[in-house]
């Protein structure tokens, strides 16, 4: 039997590195140092980045920016980029903004994420950027907010998040 491929068929190959090796190193580093090492390519990014073509653009204490250029492989059934792409980018930005404020050995996890979708995203929009900012960082809970924008500054989505701070 031969494998027939329709002219409409497209393929996308992704590669990633073992996520546990980088995470293990990261637990020994302050969050800002760890995220900076990923942004500079000294440590591998999270595997989800490969799926979305997402990269860390900038890292500062309390603020992280991710970028991606969506293509049709991220479309939902109605012909626009799936809302989960915006949610993933915003979750990454706001949670990593929290991570950037944490000392070595302290972890976090998202407890709540609220997304407001403002505009549809389609292939051809070019690069989109998710910026996350810490609003309040406490010893047990941190709050962050973020926005997703097109290259021309058009607002695509906003987010607010609560993260649980996990201390050993």
UniProtKB/TrEMBL annotation:
Gene3D superfamilies: Hotdog Thioesterase. Residues 79-156 form the Thioesterase domain. Pfam families: 4HBT. InterPro entries: ACOT13 (IPR039298), HotDog_dom_sf (IPR029069), PAAI_dom (IPR003736), Thioestr_dom (IPR006683). GO terms for molecular function: fatty acyl-CoA hydrolase activity. Keywords: Hydrolase. It comes from the Bacteria. SUPFAM superfamilies: Thioesterase/thiol ester dehydrase-isomerase (SSF54637). Belongs to the thioesterase PaaI family. This is PaaI family thioesterase. It comes from Amycolatopsis acidicola.
């Amino acid at each position: 039997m031969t494998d027939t491929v329709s002219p409409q068929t497209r393929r996308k190959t992704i590669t990633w590195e073992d996520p546990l090796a980088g995470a293990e190193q990261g637990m020994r580093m302050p969050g800002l140092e760890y995220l900076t090492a990923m942004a500079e390519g000294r440590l591998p990014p999270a595997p989800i980045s490969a799926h979305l073509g997402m990269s860390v653009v900038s890292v500062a204490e309390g603020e992280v920016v991710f970028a991606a250029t969506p293509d049709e492989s991220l479309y939902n059934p109605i012909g626009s980029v799936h809302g989960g792409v915006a949610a993933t980018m915003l979750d990454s930005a706001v949670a990593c903004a929290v991570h950037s404020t944490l000392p070595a050995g302290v972890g976090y996890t998202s407890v709540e994420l609220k997304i407001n979708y403002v505009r549809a995203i389609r292939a051809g929009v070019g690069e989109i950027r998710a910026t996350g900012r810490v609003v309040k960082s406490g010893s047990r809970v941190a709050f962050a907010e973020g926005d997703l924008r097109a290259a021309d500054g058009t607002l695509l989505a906003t987010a607010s998040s609560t993260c649980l701070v996990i201390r050993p």
